[in-house]
Specification:
With about 150 residues, the protein is an alpha+beta fold. About 25% of the residues lie in helices and about 35% in strands. The protein has five helices and nine strands. The protein has helices spanning about 15-20, 25-30, 75-85, 105-110, 120-125, and strands spanning about 1-5, 35-40, 45-55, 55-65, 90-100, 115-120, 130, 135, 140-145. The protein has a seven-stranded mixed β-sheet with strand order 1-2-3-4-5-9-6, with helices on both faces. The chain has a two-stranded antiparallel ribbon with strand order 7-8. A hairpin with a 3-residue loop joins strand 2 and strand 3 (about 45-55). It is globular, with a radius of gyration of 14 Å. It starts with a strand and ends with a strand.
Length: about 150
């Protein structure tokens, strides 16, 4: 398994990016200036994008694992890599996600805790309803952990 930084051609991973954020124009808002990593293990299995939010906060904007390889530790390996890579440069790693039974427990298992939420984020910023595990996402839940 190898995790590498992607300097050019980030859009070649669009199918994977869309697993975590299903509206391309929302991805475009952070992809160009974000730092992207891909995890390879006999092919690309996962990706993540992080951005500098200022005040010592690094934000995990997108993280996705190919569906056939979910639950095998690739997502956690990416989070661990981000923490190791940015320790000493940032104090907090934060992530915003929908209040979904498939994502919140993953982040909590990686040491994140609920910090705040933005009401109606998915209603106000997406051009169609977003569903996860059969539940419509409405509010953006922000979770944080120390780096």
């Amino acid at each position: 398994m190898e995790i590498r930084k992607v300097e050019n051609g980030k859009k070649q991973y669009l199918d994977l990016l869309l697993l975590a954020d299903e509206q391309e124009d929302m991805i475009d808002r952070y992809l160009e200036w974000g730092t992207m990593y891909v995890l390879e293990d006999s092919g690309v299995k996962a990706e993540c994008v992080v951005t500098d939010k200022g005040d010592g906060i690094l934000e995990l904007k997108n993280i996705a694992v190919e569906p056939a390889f979910q639950g095998k530790g690739y997502g956690k390996a990416l989070v661990d890599h981000i923490i190791r890579t940015y320790k000493g440069q940032y104090t907090v790693l934060q992530v915003g996600t929908g209040d979904s039974p498939s994502t919140i427990p993953f982040y909590e298992s990686c040491g994140f805790y609920r910090h705040h939420l933005i009401k109606n984020f998915f209603i106000d910023h997406y051009d169609h309803p977003i569903y996860e595990c059969g539940v419509q996402l409405v509010d953006m839940v922000y979770l944080q952990r120390e780096i």
